[in-house]
Amino acid sequence: MIGVEGRFAGSLGGFRLDAEFHLEPTGITALSGASGSGKTTLLRCIAGLTRLPGKLTVGGEVWQDEQVFLPPHRRPVGVVFQEASLFSHLSVRGNLEYGARRAKTVDLDETIELLGLAPLLARSTGALSGGERQRVALGRALVTRPRLLLMDEPLSSLDAGAKAEILPYLERLHRTLAIPLLYISHDAGEIARLADRVLLMAAGKVAPGEAARRGELASLTPAERDALALAALRAGLTP
Amino acid sequence: MAEVVWTTLKLAGLTTVLLLIAATPIAWWLSRRRAWWKEIVAAITTLPIILPPSVLGFYLLICIAPQSPLMGLLHPFGIRTLAFTFTGLVIGSMVYSLPFAVQPLRNAFEAMGPRPMEVAATLRASPLDAFFTVALPLARRGFLTAAILVFAHTIGEFGVVLMIGGGIPGKTEVISVRIYQQVEALQYGEAHKLAAGVVAFSFAALLAMLLIDRGAERGAP
Predict the structure, then answer these.
(1) Of B118, B120, B138, which has the smallest distance from its Cβ to A88's Cβ?
(2) pLDDT digits (tens, 9 = 90+) for B132-157
(3) C-alpha span between A99 and A144 (Å, rounded)
(4) CA distance A50 to A180
């Protein structure tokens, strides 16, 4: 099977995740749902940062099953967290090179060009605006040439101006990216602009009948989307 | 006088370097574990702060004396005892100053949180690689604080070094012991020179540390 196939089921503290999902080989899939529904936990499981029993294959390659568990540093995955989490002891260039060196990427120019990072390279990470920090974090993830990109509400800590500044870069990324991107977001506007598909989560489950086309769900308010996810879940539970 | 100053600086320098290396894994382990019983280990490493130096010196002396089981392990290497030797003094100083190395390092590792190590992992760095290239550089302020504290504290120690070192000139006699002997011999003039030097040095060390902390609060690199 091409694309990403995953299923995780297990408990973490008091929370139970039981999520099955599929991602197409390319395009942006938004992952939406109320806070506490398990979106971040699912993303961490995919990256290998949290370990729950389950299966995960990416482009036909097994990252996790009953026998296999690739640790995060052996998974060709890019992760952009809610806070940019740049390494403060390295410059912008140092941050980009950190992953590139380990993934043996020689050429950074394409990513630098795509995200307009050239003027920032020599700066220290403390001298960047919020939007610039997230662009560097995105670039740092991209230069490792991941086969799957995960973003956990990358714009939620930014003000409106910074969001407006970074969204065009994400749209450019969308046009050029040949890998699946899973994008956690609450924001209907972001989802409408970026997502090809939307997955809904509620109470640790991914709602079936997921592959809603862009626009259908985007026009709904977050509350309506959650209600829809719950309804879909209930329908799935009572055949 | 130059000899006793050299012995003291050599002891403090060696203790600082070796203790920072030894305390780093302990502090890292303490900062990453969530289990409550890790605090038992933390309490043991902190014990030297509140134990009377004579108690610590007494047990250390027993451990490094010729009849101890610990020294028995070293007999095949031709080492019969470490009591009243410079090596014994270094070991004793490391135990005595252990909390002053572990605590600042643990704080620095805890302040950094789990995120930088997670980010490093998603950038293909193995845990050991990430430890050296991310955790250690981010904790550099903690290392600086620990180094200053351990160095100054070793210069300031008296009871332990007297008990396990014996104050042999040129070998195990350090400044604090020399001052004590000078005062006993009523050589106040000589004692003043060394004592004033220790006060000036200790003040400078503390001031440096407070300035480092101040820089940390401002978030300067």
Answers:
(1) B138
(2) 999 999 999 999 999 999 999 999 99
(3) 5
(4) 20
Please answer whether residues A199 and A37 qualify as being in contact, where contact means their C-beta atoms are separated by less than 8 angstroms: no
> What percentage of chain A has pLDDT greater than the value 90?
58
**Rounded Cα gap, residues B180 and B217, in angstroms:** 40
CB contact under 8 A, B123 and A49: no
- The residue type of B136 is L
What does CATH list as the number for B2-218? 1.10.3720.10
Q: How many CB pairs under 8 A join A and B?
A: 65
Report the gap between the CA of B120 and the closest CA in chain A (Å). 8
| Percent of residues, chain B, with pLDDT higher than 70 | 97
B122 closest CB neighbour out of A72, A87, A89: A72
pLDDT at residue A36 is higher than 70: yes
Residue A140 with chain B: CB contacts under 8 Å: 123
Q: Does B140 contact A141 at a Cβ distance shorter than 8 Å?
A: no
Q: How much is the ipTM here? A: 0.86
Nearest CA in chain B to A99: B123
Which residues of chain B from 140 to 199 reach within 8 Å of chain A, CB to CB?
A: 140
- Which token pair is A226? 């959650």
Cα separation, A86 vs A81, whole angstroms: 10
Given CB atoms, is B133 within the 8 Å cutoff of chain A?
Answer: yes
Return all residues near B75 (Cβ < 8 A) that are at least 6 apart.
none
SS3 content of chain B, % helix, strand, coil (to 5): 80, 0, 20
pLDDT digits (tens, 9 = 90+) for A209-231: 554 544 555 566 667 766 666 66
A96 contact residues in B (CB cutoff 8 A): none
Residue B45: exposure state from Cβ atoms within 10 A (0-12, 13-18, ≥19): buried
Other CB atoms within 10 A of residue A186 CB: 17
**What is the model's pLDDT at position B74?**
87
Cβ distance of A103 and B124 shorter than 8 Å:
yes
pLDDT in tens, B40-85: 999 999 999 999 999 999 999 999 988 888 888 888 888 888 989 9
Find, among A96, A114, A95, the residue nearest to A105 by Cα. A96
- Structure-token match 């060394």, residue found: B194
What 3-state DSSP class applies to A147? coil
Q: Which residue of A71, A83, A102 is in closest CB contact with B123?
A: A102
Hey, which residues 96-115 in chain B have their CB within 8 Å of chain A? 115
Q: What is the pLDDT of residue B90?
A: 96
Chain B residues with CB inside 8 Å of A71's CB?
121
- CA angle at residue A199 from A194 to A205, to 5 degrees? 155
